[in-house]
Write a structure and sequence with these properties.
Layout: H1 14-21, E1 47-51, H2 56-61, H3 68-79, E2 88-91, E3 98-101, E4 104-107, H4 112-129, E5 133-137, H5 138-146, H6 152-155, E6 160-161, E7 167-171, H7 174-179, H8 182-203
Parallel strand pairs: 1-2, 1-5, 5-7
Antiparallel strand pairs: 3-4, 6-7
Helix pairs in contact: 4-5
Residues 51-55, 58, 64-65, 67, 69-70, 91, 175 line the site of uracil.
Length: 204
């Protein structure tokens, strides 16, 4: 067997989580033979940003948000005055779910059940980090905090309050922006930027 069982004591450090997720087999994604991608960033941070799951590039690198969506996110964070090196970036689901298509691995969204299973790890990260503010990128990340799938278009732009009082901001996932073209892309990128600026100003 090996690895930490999810019912065992909660992990005491982020390093412990990074190690233990590699052995997690609680859902089918954890059993697909890919490597788990841990969160990244300082243990003392005011902001935790959460994506859906690692993509192809992230799984290869073992780091979150290093592919095309990550580059777009980086550009928007910088523009909004948010320093990636000072925040913690992680995903709702720690393994990469995909379908093979020839030599390519095509992203598949995690199911609600898979997100709910992986929440144990996200909650463990959150308990250790105690961020002042959380940003969820897209509906899957939102679900990981709200235990329901939010309507991002309606619920973005202003924070919700989680049970422990932490403000949760919700916006679209950068992969969604990458799928848009021309004017729609420009318009949606401005909305994304405006969500990030709202959050940045709430941090003071
Ligand atoms: N998309 C995500 O949600 N997370 C990553 O780490 C990369 C792409």
């Amino acid at each position: 067997q090996g690895g930490k069982d999810i019912e065992e004591e909660p992990p005491a450090t982020l390093e412990e989580i990074a190690h233990a997720i590699g052995a997690c087999r609680r859902c089918p994604i954890g059993c697909n033979g890919t490597r788990a991608v841990p969160g990244e960033g300082p243990a003392r941070t005011r902001l935790m940003i959460v994506g859906e799951q690692p993509g192809d590039k992230e799984e290869q690198a073992g780091r979150p948000f290093v592919g095309p969506a990550g580059r777009l996110l980086d550009a928007h964070l910088a523009r909004a005055g948010l320093d990636r090196a000072r925040l913690y970036l992680t995903n709702a689901v720690k393994h990469f779910k995909f379908v093979p298509r020839g030599k390519r691995r095509l992203h598949q969204s995690p199911t609600a059940g898979e997100i709910d299973i992986c929440r144990w790890w996200l909650d463990s990260e959150r308990r250790l980090l105690r961020p002042q503010v959380i940003l969820a990128l897209g509906a899957s990340a939102g679900r990981a905090f709200l235990a329901r799938t939010p309507a991002v278009g309606k619920e973005r732009g202003a924070p919700m309050e989680l049970a422990d009082g932490t403000p949760l901001w919700l916006t679209v996932h950068p992969s969604y922006l990458l799928r848009l073209k021309d004017e729609a892309r420009a318009r949606e990128e401005e909305r994304f930027q405006s969500d990030l600026r709202g959050l940045a100003s709430s941090l003071g």
